């Protein structure tokens, strides 16, 4: 196998992953324009986000197993075509129902695409040095995708139309599809295996219920009857799923995937990192636009230094050291640096503080988080049997999705509560109500950011205690000959 073809495969895989990751945030900036254009109510507008996250988070485990059973290349290409078609449908939406349905379809195909992409990467690059470089690029994309989405959303919304935030996926998907067709060869298909239907129903049902419950908690509150019912149902269904997986002949999630200490540490680390990160992205966007009055484009540009720091952390720090030092010596310091960045951001006020607080905080956040995330991705997919790489990749993506849902809901609730308390304590005669509202909003953001700081410290503690490997593992069956494990390239 020609080495340059492996790196072209990385380009294809990374392009598809970038599309999936940035789609989580690119629509956020376009949402106010879409709401006005399609006459959405304030209560319904959240479904533009929720429809996507529900389908994506709920079907990831199923999508990962389909990649193992049907073949990673086939699943990858179906995911690309479906995602492009759903994006075009959403861009052409004539009403809110059509847009919600298109976003749900995007989530369905993203649930096929994301695990297939990560498992392709894991089974293509098994040499430790090449693997470190490849995962460095991939980790930078995972970390920077959200920030790139905010920038792209600002550009497209300000200079074209909100619909282009969806249309832009079509050419990206088609280019990736053409690359996959030319470079990737069939591989990883296991026709002797069978799909665990009861496991799929229990696992997907539990994930949908859990993600939906966390999404609704942001607007309804944690004590709402529907939220409590959804969260309890999600826990019960996932508990039943776990029991069933120990008895199923061909489990949807093989126990070997979640019994490995290093992978469990990586999954838990990523879960708590995303709990802290997703809400902070949202707060920073609202702070820059709502408090400082910046435009969507200027807000997107403000994230560029963090994106650059993420690229440096993944490709110049983690990728260079991953094969030389124990993984936790990268993850723990990385998370501590990222937490330090949040501590700086948590001290902003109503006066412009981009240069003094936001910028240095973003740089530390990007540098530290990308170093930790890239290392965690390698841990999550290393030493797993090729036939189970889709399941391992799906579990990693699920940890990200659930963490993001929990973080958004939890931190939003904390921010809203802190804002309301501040307003009650400081309202009085002669008080400038507009200034008070801004101060209360920033106070709420700061309190929530301190909670995000705590989530990163918890992630660092978990990584320090659980992850104890001397070196990042490589996939099983790597062998001595480079071409042998690379069943994904032609």
Notable characteristics:
single chain, disordered C terminus, 78% helix, globular, 490 residues, mainly alpha
Descriptive report:
There is one protein chain. The C terminus is likely disordered. The longest helix is centred in the last third of the chain and has 38 residues. This protein is globular. It has 17 helices and no strands. Helix 4 packs across helix 16. The protein starts with a helix and ends in a 24-residue tail after the last helix. With 490 residues, the chain is mostly helical. Helix content is 78%, strand content 0%.
The largest sheet, given as strand count, sense and whether it forms a barrel, is: none
Overall mean pLDDT score?
80
H-E string: HHHHHHHHHHHHHHHHH
What percent of the residues sit in helical stretches (DSSP H or I)?
Answer: over 70%
Oligomer: single chain
> What class do helices, strands and sheet pairing give?
mainly alpha
Ends: how far apart?
8 Å
Helix run count: 17
- How many β-strand stretches? 0
Radius of gyration: 22 Å
- Beta-strand fraction estimate: under 5%
Overall 3D geometry?
A: globular
| Unreliable sequence segments | 477-490
């Amino acid at each position: 196998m020609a080495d340059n073809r492996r790196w072209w495969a990385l380009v294809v895989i990374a392009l598809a992953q970038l599309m999936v990751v940035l789609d989580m945030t690119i629509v956020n900036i376009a949402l106010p324009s879409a709401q006005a254009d399609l006459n959405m109510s304030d209560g319904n507008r959240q479904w533009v986000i929720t429809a996507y996250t529900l389908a994506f988070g709920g079907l990831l485990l199923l999508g990962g197993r389909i990649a193992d059973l049907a073949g990673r290349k086939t699943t990858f290409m179906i995911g690309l075509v479906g995602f492009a078609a759903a994006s075009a449908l959403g861009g052409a939406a004539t009403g809110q129902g059509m847009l919600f349905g298109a976003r749900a379809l995007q989530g369905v195909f993203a649930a096929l695409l994301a695990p297939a992409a990560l498992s392709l990467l894991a089974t293509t690059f098994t040499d430790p040095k090449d693997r470190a470089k490849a995962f460095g690029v991939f980790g930078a994309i995972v970390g920077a995708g959200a920030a790139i989405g905010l920038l792209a959303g600002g550009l497209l919304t300000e200079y074209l139309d909100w619909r282009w935030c969806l249309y832009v996926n079509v050419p990206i998907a088609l280019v990736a599809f053409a690359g996959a067709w030319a470079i990737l060869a069939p591989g990883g298909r296991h026709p002797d295996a069978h799909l665990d239907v009861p496991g799929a129903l229990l696992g997907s049902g539990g994930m949908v219920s859990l993600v939906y419950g966390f999404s609704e908690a942001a607007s309804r509150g944690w004590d709402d009857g529907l939220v409590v019912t959804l969260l309890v149902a999600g826990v019960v269904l996932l508990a039943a799923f776990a029991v069933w997986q120990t008895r199923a002949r061909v489990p949807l999630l093989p126990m070997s995937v979640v019994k490995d200490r290093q992978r469990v540490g990586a999954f838990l680390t990523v879960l708590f990192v995303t709990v802290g990160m997703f809400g902070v992205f949202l707060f920073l966007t609202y702070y820059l636009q709502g408090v400082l009055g910046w435009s969507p484009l200027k807000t997107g540009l403000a994230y560029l230094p963090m994106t650059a720091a993420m690229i440096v952390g993944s490709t110049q720090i983690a990728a260079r050291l991953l094969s030389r030092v124990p993984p936790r010596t990268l993850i723990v310091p990385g998370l501590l640096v990222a937490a330090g960045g949040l501590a700086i951001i948590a001290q902003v006020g109503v006066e412009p503080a981009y240069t003094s607080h936001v910028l240095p905080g973003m740089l530390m956040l990007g540098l530290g988080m990308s170093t930790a995330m890239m290392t965690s991705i390698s841990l999550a997919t290393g030493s797993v049997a090729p036939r189970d790489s889709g399941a391992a990749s799906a579990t990693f993506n699920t940890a990200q999705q659930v963490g993001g849902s929990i973080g958004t809901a939890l931190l939003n609730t904390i921010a809203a509560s802190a804002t309301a308390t501040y307003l009650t304590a400081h309202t009085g005669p002669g008080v400038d109500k507009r200034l008070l509202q801004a101060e209360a909003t920033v106070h709420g953001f700061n309190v929530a950011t301190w909670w995000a700081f705590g989530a990163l410290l918890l992630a660092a503690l978990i990584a320090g205690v659980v992850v104890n490997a001397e070196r990042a593992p490589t996939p099983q069956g790597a062998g001595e000959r480079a071409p042998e494990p690379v069943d994904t390239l032609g």
